[in-house]
Amino acid sequence: MSDPAPSEASNEGGALHSIRSRSETDKAADVAFDKLVTAFRSKVKVKDRSYRLKTYKSCFTGEEAVKALLTLDDCQTVDDALTVGNGLMAHGVFEHVLREHALKNGPLFYRFLNDERGAPARGADGARVSWSDFVTDGTSDVVAGLTGSFPGPDLSSVPATSVHVATAVSPLDEHNVALLNNVHPASWVDPTPASNFTYNLLVLGAGAGGLVTAAGAAGVGAKVALVEAHMLGGDCLNVGCVPSKALIRAARAAADIKDAARLKDMGITIKGEVEIDFGATMTRLRRLRAKISENDSASRFSAQLGCDVYLGYGKFTSPNTLVVNGQTLRFAKAVVATGGYPQLLPISGMKELAAGWGSGDASAPVIATNESIWNLTALPQRLLVIGTGVIGMELAQAMQRLGSSVTMFGRSGKVLPKEDQDLAAIVKEQMIADGVQFRLSVTKYVSVSLTGAKDASGFQEMELVITEMGPDGQEVTSRLPADAILVAAGRQPNVTGFDLGLAGVEVDPRKGLKLNDQLQTSNPNIFGVGDVTGKDQFTHSADAQARMVIRNALFFGKAKFSNLLIPWATFTHPEIAHVGLYAADIKAVGKEYVTYEKSFEHNDRAILEGETEGVVRIIVEKGSDRILGATIVGPDAGDLISEITVAMQAGMGLGSLAGVIHPYPTLAESIARAGDLYNKTKLTNSVRLVFRQLLKVHR
């Protein structure tokens, strides 16, 4: 092959380098990338083309694109050209006219996108506007106090439409800048559809449920509008599953290293102190969250997945219109996926003290929820956690293991109240062994106030006053000092501020959208998914609901939420996971059942790992092996529960599970051994007698 012609896009490192190094936080790389795009565009002939009696406007062929790319620096082969071309497609420069193919060296048609589905705004230098443009310079303008010294936003220059995001995420280090560039670019140019254009589907809210709905609908050819006021990815990415599991992993590592007796038994001795750098732990959390956020980015959904992305507050104006940033969008169907928010308790002084930290003031006293605790960069020595549900338990254990002294508060005397309490007690006992203290007989949260003291890290000391039942049954008043308070006392569906009434959508402020079993609202053209429905508030539940709604809204489906089998897991140590019905549920409907259990004490892998606390509990319908529900508490319970979920979904009974060959030694063998327990019940005295007679014949 002859040498390619000299490039008109002379950029350092050439086309391949520009594709591989392009970053929206690196202005030089961004400018080099734009030069590459300009050069490529200048060499491709765009015109109307026809195929099978259909005309495709303003397009070019894959073969023409490859020829053009071969004229650029360091594109020496067709493979190089395809690498660069598919990189350009990944960055939203062009796409296949039907969005069905990557770039191929052939007659397929492609078209340039021109940012018509929404894109980050560009500055005077031609580079995309980045959150790094709004980070303050100099030590006098950084976030200080208990977070140390980190970059913060210059709110006077942040676009008004993004100030609420700038105050929610702290600090604005390189990782949070990358996160925000992905999930809420500082300045975004909305699409401008024709005045009479009607979307097949409009999705309000870009959390887990909204994103799956939008991507899935666009993937089957629907014209989709995705509207988000805050951050794409919603709770799970930004303030839920992702950051919490990063924290939990670090806490688990710390606990393993500090378990000197267990390590000594393995022949391992660690000399000296085990030091935990909480600031570094949180830096890792922010870095990994930013990396994962690429999958939920606004640019990916607009340029790669084919959604029209609008960043702003959407409000319904009629049963089939919504206004966002001054534009009225028309839709045939819509999905409300606005999620939920944590609720503060009506404790005297709490709302006033919580306002500062919750709005990004790093010098304020730390009264946090699951949405704001991730802004910590220093470790509170004394952490009080109100609420003993999933969020409270996971974070309390993690923070205790990372060095905080944690006390948990509840009213009911229970932890993880949805779970069987004998199994929840296994988790509680481990947390007590970790050092967590429990006060579960609170009768009233009286007040919270500042004491005026401040520790070396900058935490302002608070005092929480409660009344609780004492050991003698008498109510007593207790005063507890705290450096930080985490409120994990439940979440509310986010149904206000969207003028849902104008769309004919009925809501319950406490329970969420009023829906039928097909997830339709009182407006049959508007559906609901995710936490706003008040149904099983898990990311994987929102995902399943979204897939169901795509079928029901666009393809006349009749799928029912009540038919979904949704497992869940709490990622404490040990983990606890469940699927199906609890014994109490079965008793409530008058059914008879039988429970089979297998303890990890008798599982060889658990013995070898030194983690024998826990059990597999499986409930079957009396008289058959039909599985009605199961709970696992122990190591990797969140993964193990999937085997039972698959069996239930497929109609596979517990007896059949015993016949599935499991690798040895694995924790999952305990599931099969529970199946053996069921099969042994079939060996009645009559069956034994028959077997004995048969064996006599064979002697």
From TrEMBL:
<dbReference type="InterPro" id="IPR036390">
    <property type="entry name" value="WH_DNA-bd_sf"/>
</dbReference>
<dbReference type="GO" id="GO:0009536">
    <property type="term" value="C:plastid"/>
</dbReference>
<dbReference type="Pfam" id="PF07992">
    <property type="entry name" value="Pyr_redox_2"/>
</dbReference>
<dbReference type="InterPro" id="IPR000591">
    <property type="entry name" value="DEP_dom"/>
</dbReference>
<dbReference type="InterPro" id="IPR036388">
    <property type="entry name" value="WH-like_DNA-bd_sf"/>
</dbReference>
<dbReference type="GO" id="GO:0050660">
    <property type="term" value="F:flavin adenine dinucleotide binding"/>
</dbReference>
<dbReference type="InterPro" id="IPR004099">
    <property type="entry name" value="Pyr_nucl-diS_OxRdtase_dimer"/>
</dbReference>
<dbReference type="InterPro" id="IPR036188">
    <property type="entry name" value="FAD/NAD-bd_sf"/>
</dbReference>
<keyword id="KW-0521">NADP</keyword>
<keyword id="KW-0274">FAD</keyword>
<dbReference type="Pfam" id="PF00610">
    <property type="entry name" value="DEP"/>
</dbReference>
<dbReference type="InterPro" id="IPR016156">
    <property type="entry name" value="FAD/NAD-linked_Rdtase_dimer_sf"/>
</dbReference>
<dbReference type="InterPro" id="IPR023753">
    <property type="entry name" value="FAD/NAD-binding_dom"/>
</dbReference>
<dbReference type="GO" id="GO:0035556">
    <property type="term" value="P:intracellular signal transduction"/>
</dbReference>
<dbReference type="InterPro" id="IPR012999">
    <property type="entry name" value="Pyr_OxRdtase_I_AS"/>
</dbReference>
<keyword id="KW-0560">Oxidoreductase</keyword>
<keyword id="KW-0676">Redox-active center</keyword>
<protein>
    <recommendedName>
        <fullName>DEP domain-containing protein</fullName>
    </recommendedName>
</protein>
<comment type="similarity">
    <text>Belongs to the class-I pyridine nucleotide-disulfide oxidoreductase family.</text>
</comment>
<dbReference type="Pfam" id="PF02852">
    <property type="entry name" value="Pyr_redox_dim"/>
</dbReference>
<feature type="domain" description="DEP">
    <location>
        <begin position="40"/>
        <end position="114"/>
    </location>
</feature>
<dbReference type="GO" id="GO:0016668">
    <property type="term" value="F:oxidoreductase activity, acting on a sulfur group of donors, NAD(P) as acceptor"/>
</dbReference>
<dbReference type="GO" id="GO:0003955">
    <property type="term" value="F:NAD(P)H dehydrogenase (quinone) activity"/>
</dbReference>
<keyword id="KW-0285">Flavoprotein</keyword>
<feature type="region of interest" description="Disordered">
    <location>
        <begin position="1"/>
        <end position="22"/>
    </location>
</feature>
<keyword id="KW-1015">Disulfide bond</keyword>
